[in-house]
Design a protein that fits this description.
- With about 350 residues, this protein is α/β, with parallel strands linked by helices.
- It has two domains: about 160 residues, Rossmann fold (3-Layer(aba) Sandwich), CATH 3.40.50.2000; about 170 residues, Rossmann fold (3-Layer(aba) Sandwich).
- Helix content is about 45%, strand content about 15%.
- It contains 15 helices and twelve strands.
- The chain has a six-stranded parallel sheet, sandwiched between helices. It has a six-stranded parallel sheet with strand order 9-8-7-10-11-12, with helices on both faces.
- The longest helix has 20 residues.
- The protein is globular and about 65 Å long.
- The two termini are about 10 Å apart.
- It comes from Agrococcus carbonis.
- Pfam families: Glyco_trans_1_4.
Amino acid sequence: MRVVVFPAYRENPFLGMMLGAAEREGAEIVDARTLDELEAALAERPAETVLHMHWTNPIAQSTNNPVVAARNAGRFRRMVRGAKQRGARVVWTVHNVLPHGAKHARVERGVHRFLAEAADRIHVMHPGTAALAAPHYALPGERIRHIPHPSYAGAVPPAVDRIAARERLAIEPEALAVLFLGQMRAYKGVLDLIDAAGRAAAQRPLVLLLAGNATPDETAAIDAALAAHPRLRAVRHLRFVDHAELPGWFAAADVVALPYRRILNSGSVLLAATYGVPALLPREAHLEADYGDQAWVTLFDGAEGLERALEQARVDDGAARAAALADAAAWTPEDASRALLGVLREALGER
């Protein structure tokens, strides 16, 4: 079996986690990050090849020009159709209904409709994905395979000492440390979190940990939001967080806040569980179905709900930490990668 991964964003550990079983079974993994690389990869040994499609961003979101976006989409469709005619198969992992902040929504919907038609198997990580996608495109139920997003157990560096991590950031023992980790995109609600944390900081000792890449515009917006709450202490690390740095940030945190405005599958939730850190999530129907009964997750409603959740969260909640770790151990990268290997084999007609 030959698996062409597109786009191969290897900085995201998800890809290595999900392909682990295929690699151990001897599959040849070919990474492609651009359309040129994809075209070259699909030209080789198509009858042995499965295109494992992930995010669609390199197709239409890589340009600000709508004409170029449409041209890229047409090229992508032609190369995938040609590869399938020569015997290749397609497995599509649906990460988002549509890319966050899609610049060319019409073109992007067309790409997703094409993938829904062309994919031999469609891997969803949430059972409600088809219903959430229905306003934009139809996912044929007979080709959908549900494999939940695994935890990151064994795929990220091990936990480090909590006391040392907090001392490094000068966090007082009684302060609630709230972590927001990842790219500081508007759809992730970082400004909403700063506002809610600023109000909650008037009621209790609270430190906001902001760790992840930010554009100059995003940095300016974050600085302005923090300036509006002078009583809120924030630790700003507005640049890429390397894997080796992850344990320190999670060890220092009491909760991870994920106030996303739109969320389908969030690896950040499972990353928090892997390090045994409770999470705050917006109360959306599909998230409530997944996490509503989890002792380590608090669901909140809107800005006021987030503020209340921050006011009520416990410092170093041992019971919630234990529940998070147990949940992370229940579905691991090894479990998920073996399930995906079965889907890849099914797409190729292997047993």
